[in-house]
Design a protein that fits this description.
single chain; 5-stranded mixed β-sheet; alpha/beta; 163 residues; Maf protein
């Protein structure tokens, strides 16, 4: 577990516990890395309600409520699916903030339209759902860590804005 990620999780915990904010995550290409990082910090149960690793499209549909039509029209690696994953996690866990990640971590699985490193991070809050597109350029491990870092940093910023 990279220390920089754990340091972000510690910051997130301070923000959330200090402001009474609850968090959940919905992860695909990161395979639970964000949830693992958050729970590395003792006391995370005070704000982190849980997460879903929805690697398969069927899991995105069943566990997070992502519409099959959205998956069919845009593919799993898309802004639309990241939005739906974040909204689904927020609704199902009943939290203040939910982050989602979907992407092509590599080294295989990319295409001209969706190259390796293409990642979407979503964030759902009481104000709605936003999405950010990242084009990462590392190997599989680096891409997963960069995506996790982006989600944690965004959760921190949004948590600070709520307070």
């Amino acid at each position: 577990m990279p220390g920089a990620l754990v340091a972000l999780a510690e910051r997130l915990q301070g923000v959330c516990l200090g402001r009474g904010i609850t968090v959940a995550v919905a992860e695909s290409c990161t395979g639970g890395l964000v949830a693992t990082t958050i729970t590395e910090v003792p006391g995370s149960s005070g704000y982190f309600l849980g997460g879903v690793v929805s690697y398969a499209n069927s899991a995105k549909e069943t566990l997070l409520g992502v519409a099959q039509a959205t998956l069919a029209a845009h593919g799993a690696v898309s802004a639309q699916v990241a939005v739906a994953m974040a909204a689904g996690a927020r609704a199902r866990f009943g939290v203040d903030l939910a982050a989602s990640i979907t992407g092509v971590a590599g080294p295989d699985g990319g295409s001209d339209e969706k190259p390796v490193g293409l990642t979407y991070v979503g964030l759902a809050s009481g104000a709605g759902v936003e999405v950010r597109r990242l084009q990462l350029s590392g190997d599989r491990v680096a891409n997963r860590e960069a995506a996790a870092r982006a989600a944690l940093e965004w959760l921190i910023a949004e948590g600070e804005a709520i307070g």
